Amino acid sequence: MRYLSLFLLLCCVSSVTAQSDVLNRYVQEGLQSNQTLKQQGFQLQKAMFALSEAKTLFKPTVNFNTTLSGAMGGRKIELPVGDLLNPVYSQLNQLTNSSKFPQIQNTSEQLVPKDFYDVRFKTTMPLFNAEIKFNQAIKKEQVVLQEIEMKVYKRELVKDIKTAYFNYLKASEAVKIYQNALQLLHESERVNQSLISNGAANPTVLIRTRNEIAKVNADLEAAKGAQQNAAAYFNFLLNKDFTEKITSDTLSLKAIPTTLTDGHREELDKLQTGIAINQQLLGLSQAYKKPKIGASLDLGSQGRFGQIASSNYNFLSPNAFFILGISLDLPVYSFGRNQLKVKQAEMDIAALDTQLKQVKNQLDLQTSVANTNYHAARTVYESKASQVSTAERYYRDLMRRYKEGNLNFIELLDAHTQITMAQLQQSIALYDVWIKWVELERAKASFEM
């Protein structure tokens, strides 16, 4: 007998271990298929891209710029080249006894170029800019914040999936209890029919039995509706078809857990990251005191685009140019606007510090309440378990007496009702324990992500 007991215990343990994987598999499936979690994953990728973008702000930027312009009218510059050179040309012609030096006309040149092109590659690069540095730090903290947001949502999703699963099992168990109640009532109907046939019972007991059967049938249909709704919500969390079959894991639920490890609440990390972001924003608002230094380099060519058609035209010479520049930007006075921005950032940090202390107290309270509710639910379940066995034994005794003709049918019917209610209350109490356990698991952040 000792070896047989040990063998049965090992079989039971192995069954529990195998069955306990069902809910964990559903949880992992929900984490992988949840649409909201996928959306948050996209937001995390967006934050990471924003961080990569912020890092590139320290690197040089190269732009290609081209300007082609044509104009008419406007002011002119008069160039008296004829008045200056014609006397000289006349003297040269006389001295050389030739006409090699013709007379030329005075000319004028538009200040606005009639045809002009400007082609250049412009390179700019910040040498010192505190705002870029703080902006990069903010983007980095925002990536961390989004990762924490995903962890918080995952924990809530795990809680919702487990709670929905236990609610489904609770509804399914109610269906089974009502079906068992119907079997007992049909057995009572058969016994009453036999007693009536033998003249040992009044026909009214059969009417009462059938009325009770109709009542339990109505309760059974309501329980089936609750079961379907619970299944639909559970499948919704897993992003499945609402009518998808759900594997019931009831064997491992008999072994109620007693302890949970304390984890770390990501809500506190979320607030601390928010404080870190606001500290960077404070540094950003204080960065107005520091100068901005940048460098620029222009490489290009300028000239008349009418000359481009010339076969011997060259962009590089003599029209090529380069411009090297260093820029300095230092604010002098802004009527206290920058100082007011600093004060606003300081108030944001102070508000988050206060909120962090408040949230710590709220989380401690949540854990305390969840722990109390869990132990209270365990106590209720343990009391209901004994009531079921008592009600079943009481019903068997009364059924035996009723068959012998030593009991009123109303007493037997009352005993049957007590069994049904006791079984329902025990089932509800069992799954309430697990639901309270899930709430405690969430409050302590015990689930390993």
As a percent range, the share of helical residues equals 55-70%
Spatial sequence of strands, sheet with the most strands: 1-4-5-6
Based on CA inertia axes, which overall geometry fits?
elongated
The amount of beta strand, in percent, is 5-15%
Kindly state the mean pLDDT as a whole number?
Answer: 84
Number of helices: 9
Number of strands: 6
Question: What is the SS-derived class?
Answer: alpha+beta
The CATH superfamily of the largest domain turns out to be Outer membrane efflux proteins (OEP)
Order of secondary-structure elements: HHHEEHEEHHHEEHH
Radius of gyration: 44 Å
| CATH class division of the largest domain | Mainly Alpha
List the uncertain runs.
1-19
Within the CATH hierarchy, at the fold level, what is the topology of the largest domain? Outer membrane efflux proteins (OEP)
Question: How many structural domains can be distinguished in the coordinates?
Answer: 2
Q: What is the second-level CATH architecture of the largest domain?
A: Up-down Bundle
How far apart the termini lie comes to: 44 Å
Biggest sheet overview: 4 strands, antiparallel
Sum up the structure in keywords:
single chain, 449 residues, alpha+beta, Outer membrane efflux proteins (OEP), 2 domains, four-stranded antiparallel sheet, 65% helix, disordered N terminus
